[in-house]
Amino acid sequence: MILPIIGYGDPVLRKVGEPITKDYPNLTETIADMYETMYNAYGVGLAAPQVALPIRLFVIDTSPFASDEDLSEEEQEQLASFKQTFINAKMLKEDGEEWGFNEGCLSIPEVREDVYRNERITIEFYDENFEKKTEIYDGLIARVIQHEYDHIEGILFTDKISSLKKRLIKKKLSNIMEGKTRPDYKMKFCAKKTSR
To answer: pLDDT of 171-184, one tens digit each?
Structure first.
């Protein structure tokens, strides 16, 4: 089932997600709905707060990045096959050089900005079968995970840009809060509380 994506300004996007247990109600359906919602919006990641669930859950599928011809064949193959569910994720380490990449967010449509993040991460999480894992990721996969991990910590990518850039996008953010933005996927806006 395709869920409405919560727009910028809604308080749920600022909540630190609560850990869940494997008995969380309808967990399998929730994960399936999140993937379907993400694919419908042409996203590469989606966190539970973006569908109004203040829990520590996010899903990622980096295959849309695999067609980037600027990447090595090895990177393209990694991105093409990376699909992962993260439950109760805990970032253990972020290291390596910081590098910039133009990021966007399904909750903040029509806004893209360069964000600097570390190139490598070590993260502990449970997968969809509630098996505990500790993994090291780098490059674009690490970046997508960091972006989604921020969501379960109540952080948005716009928090990581300069104050000048924040001023420049202020009107766009207001438009999102007021429901004046019209992405081609279902959204729920802060001020209007209606979906399209």
So the answer is: 999 999 999 999 99
Q: Tokens 């990045």 identify what position?
A: 65
Residue 128 has pLDDT above 80, yes or no: yes
- Active-site residue, selected from the candidate residues 77, 97, 131, 148: 148
| Distance, CA of 159 to CA of 148 (rounded, Å) | 14
DSSP 78: H
User: Residue 134: pLDDT above 80?
Assistant: yes
HEC assignment per residue over 69-118: CCCCHHHHHHHHHCEEEEEEEEEEEEEEEEEEEEEEECCEEEEEEEEEEE
* Segment 50-89, tens digit of pLDDT: 999 999 999 999 999 988 888 888 889 999 999 999 999 9
Question: Which residues are CB-neighbours of 139 under 8 A, at least 6 positions away?
Answer: 75, 78, 119
CA distances from 192 to 9, 175, 176, 179 (A): 11, 11, 10, 6
The CATH number of the domain holding residue 179 is: 3.90.45.10
- Residue range(s) defining the domain that contains residue 97: 5-188
Confirm whether 148 is a catalytic residue.
yes
**What distance in Å separates the CA atoms of residue 64 and residue 45, rounded to the nearest whole number?**
11
Helix (H, G, I), strand (E, B) or coil at 17: coil
| Model pTM score | 0.94
Residue 41 lies in a domain: yes
Q: Quick one: residue 91, left, alpha or beta (phi over 0 = left, psi -120 to 50 = alpha)?
A: beta
